[in-house]
Amino acid sequence: MLQLDHVSFAYDNLSVLEDINLKIKEGEHVCVIGESGCGKSTLLKILYGLLEIDTGEVYWNDTQILGPAYNLIPGERYMKYLSQDFDLMPFTTVYENVSQFLSVLEPELLKERTNELLATIEMTDFSSTKVRYLSGGQQQRVALARVLAQEPKILLLDEPFSHIDNFRKNSLRRNLFGYLKSKNITVVTSTHDPYDMLPFADRVVVLRDKKIMAVDTPKELYEHPKDIYIASLFGQANRIPINIVKTYADTKRRIIVYAHEFRVSNKSGLETVVSQSFYMGGYYLVEGIYEESKIYFHHHEPLEKGKEIYLNVSIETINRRLAV
């Protein structure tokens, strides 16, 4: 088990994380999300032992993870940290970069293992290419394979797909996270992308204002967000009063509604004036004004600016949000 007990950290006098408590089971995949500057990358560096914490302790099972004040070379041997700096050997080939950490005493096994990793990152066709000639996204994939070759017990991923194009990203996610789960590797991923966590994470940690705001499964956080901040990390979200949408409701409580959960009506509901429509491919994201506040919803076609419409939400969605 990977465990943080009352961990706090500051850069000089700037506090970044305060009283962080978290337990991560062996083989679990945990995603850390939050706005830029909330401390996601800092948390991963603390776990790896790159930073000296001000207070608290970090453990992997019974072994305490210590910072640079105790280790001449920071970082634990059973743990690998993939940062946004790839640390590759630019003048050698992709194959040589990936196979560097494999035993040369068993050449057949080395070849088999290297080819397996190249297939996982979808770089088999580039095995003989020198790293210096690769794009940023391709280099990021090689860096992934290099850390996998070292067979860590714990893998820390900081924005692991940030340089990779959408064409490749979806299949690479499935390959990588499926591989890590099959090997029972404990994974902590820092990300801005909801598609890194929704299908693959066992749990999600939400950071805000230096603290852990929520910890739960991605499904629970998405379907029952306790705060508009949490919902906004998954997609476009709004906070609206129930009794405006459903006039028979006897409460003025506000609930969170995602843009795709609204339905447009010409008769009754949340009275909204259209201000803009944005083409999103299979739908339009429409911006409207309700009581001088912006509200966002999806529609199958663009709506004319200045048009007055009504927005409704299903009773199932309302009941689900009221249960929070």
Describe this structure in words.
This protein has helices at 40-48, 94-99, 107-120, 136-149, 166-182, 194-197, 218-223, 228-232, 242-245, 315-322; strands at 2-11, 14-24, 29-33, 55-60, 63-64, 79-82, 154-158, 186-190, 203-208, 211-216, 237-241, 254-258, 262-265, 270-279, 284-290, 293-299, 308-313. Helix content is 27%, strand content 32%. The protein starts with a strand and ends with a helix. The mean pLDDT is 91. It is α+β, with helices and mostly antiparallel strands and 324 residues long.
What would the keywords be for this entry?
globular, 10 helices, alpha+beta, six-stranded mixed beta sheet, single chain, five-stranded antiparallel beta sheet, 324 residues
How many strands in all? Answer: 17
What is the CA-atom radius of gyration, in angstroms?
23 Å
Mean pLDDT: 91
Range of helix content: 25-40%
Structural class: alpha+beta
Beta strand %: 25-35%
Terminal CA distance reads: 30 Å
Number of helices: 10
User: What oligomeric state do the depicted chains represent?
Assistant: single chain
Taking pLDDT < 50 over at least 5 consecutive residues as the criterion, the unreliable ranges are: none
Order of helices and strands: EEEHEEEHHHEHEHEEHHEHEEEEEEH
